[in-house]
Amino acid sequence: MTFVAYKVYKELERQLKLKKSNLSPEKVIEIQQSMFQIEITTPKNKEIIRKTLILNKEHKLINEIFNLGC
Asked: How far from the centroid of its chain's Cα atoms is residue 49's Cα?
């Protein structure tokens, strides 16, 4: 498990460098911990709608870096 966590961390670090972000992986993880996604299923046709909540400037920055589709 530790190896997988390390690989995910290194990939996050690589993606941040690739996208020329000055954020550290630690900061991105901290910001992500306060981000939420809601999911609504419509009653009529059972369509699932997902929306990530962008509540502040840090969330917006993460959305721009990783194109979360918000």
From this structure: 17
